[in-house]
User: Fold this.
Amino acid sequence: MDLLLNLEDRNYNVATALENLRPGTSWIVEGNTYDGIIWKSNASTKPSRQEVEDEIIRLKNKWDNDRYSRLRAKEYPPITDYLDAVVKGDQEQMQAYVDACLAVKAKYPKPE
Assistant:
């Protein structure tokens, strides 16, 4: 059975797996399937189906495990708020920025 992933993010697909497994090689992927790989590189051998599937699973797990980081990034206050406080020497504003960041971290804790 061909590995065909219709996933929301491009970070885990056959092309990305190939880039990670065989950097600098030449290939084309038709349809995001292993059977759709047209290997053009003489410098390296085509990775096995299992290698590609394992790399896609690794990438997907990494994507899932880094979810907290993406959520945090959307909610952190702009760094310009902190820089403005530093330039003005406003300790209260700096502390408000730190407190806002800590609140976001608490809302989206890093998985253990």
Remarks:
- The CA atoms of residues 72 and 105 lie 7 Å apart.
- Strands lie at 27-29, 37-39.
- Residues 68-107 form one domain.
